[in-house]
Design goal:
Blueprint: H1 3-39, H2 56-79, H3 81-85, E1 91-92, H4 100-125, H5 131-134, H6 154-161, H7 163-170, E2 173-174, H8 175-192, H9 215-223, H10 235-240, H11 247-254, E3 262-265, E4 268-270
Parallel strand pairs: 1-2
Antiparallel strand pairs: 3-4
Helix pairs in contact: 1-2, 1-8, 2-6, 4-8
Subcellular location: Membrane
GO molecular function, one term: oxidoreductase activity
Organism: Plesiocystis pacifica SIR-1
């Protein structure tokens, strides 16, 4: 394929990826914002992680920066179009070519790898020599909302987006698994930036579920960037000593009341 056709193919793929990604962001992250920050903000006020509300201009900035951040995040995949067309990217396009069990296993391994990539690149971007150029933009959200899910600078978005093409250069991945991952990733970005904790109180101390990343876990990173560099899981922070020392206590404080708990009315408490 000549260079003109390669450029056309890359731009076509880029426009397709961007349209789908913006749509997912608007539906999932935008929907989570409307539900928790507008419609039911009083109903779930007891599960709010931080009491202070961000300014309206900060929310608008989160929205604008996320739309741009999605572009930067997709750029590595778009630029790798020639590698895909030349057969160097190990993407399996036939859904039936991979068993459901193998798709499930590859999803788990892909997520574990993504968490590792995120922890170390994220922690590296907090270094004082590069922070201002890479990650400072995301931390303008001190009280993050779901709109901040993709609020990446150009460098940060590009680095995070490199994970997918790098994996495809080495390991065969079925397209179905990638579809599952991108939807899961969008929901996760909305959840960890939700500003409210929706998971049960026992999560933080259970010997298995304590390794799951939570909205409280990531929200505390926005409060104090010296801790909680992971996002999907907490194990890298636990192993490397970068987990916030008050994380468990803070999580249990936020989740003291059940999610569907109602404030007492006339001395009568209603909880479901």
């Amino acid at each position: 394929m000549d260079s003109a056709n390669l450029v056309t193919e890359a731009l076509t793929n880029g426009a397709f990826f961007l349209g789908r990604s913006w749509t997912r962001y608007l539906v999932v992250c935008g929907g989570a914002f409307v539900l928790f920050w507008v419609v039911f903000k009083e109903r779930f006020a007891h599960r709010r992680i931080q009491r202070q509300n961000p300014e309206r201009r900060t929310l608008l900035s989160e929205f604008r920066n996320s739309l741009l951040g999605i572009i930067f995040f997709l750029l590595p995949s778009v630029l790798s179009t020639p590698l895909y067309l030349s057969g160097h990217m190990k993407l399996i396009t036939d859904p039936s070519a991979t068993s459901p069990a193998m798709i499930a296993l590859s999803f788990v391994l892909f997520v574990i790898g993504a968490d590792t990539w995120f922890y170390w690149t994220h922690r590296g971007m907090h270094h004082s020599n590069v922070y201002r150029f890479t990650h400072e933009l995301h931390h303008r959200s001190k009280q993050p909302s779901p709109l901040a899910g993709y609020a990446f600078s150009a460098i940060e978005g590009f680095v995070l987006g490199l994970y997918l093409p790098l994996v495809l250069l080495v390991f065969p991945v079925n397209r179905v698994m990638l579809w599952i991952f991108v939807f899961w990733f969008t929901f996760l970005e909305a959840y960890v930036h939700l500003g409210f904790e929706v998971l049960p109180r026992w999560i933080a101390r259970n010997p298995v579920t304590k390794f799951l990343g939570t909205a409280v876990f990531h929200d505390m990173h926005h409060e104090n960037g010296a801790y909680n560099f992971g996002v999907y899981f907490t194990w890298w922070d636990r192993m490397m000593g970068t987990i916030h020392p008050q994380y468990t206590e803070r999580y249990e404080q936020v989740t003291e009341q059940r999610l569907l708990w109602r404030a007492p009315v006339d001395g009568v408490e209603d909880s479901v």
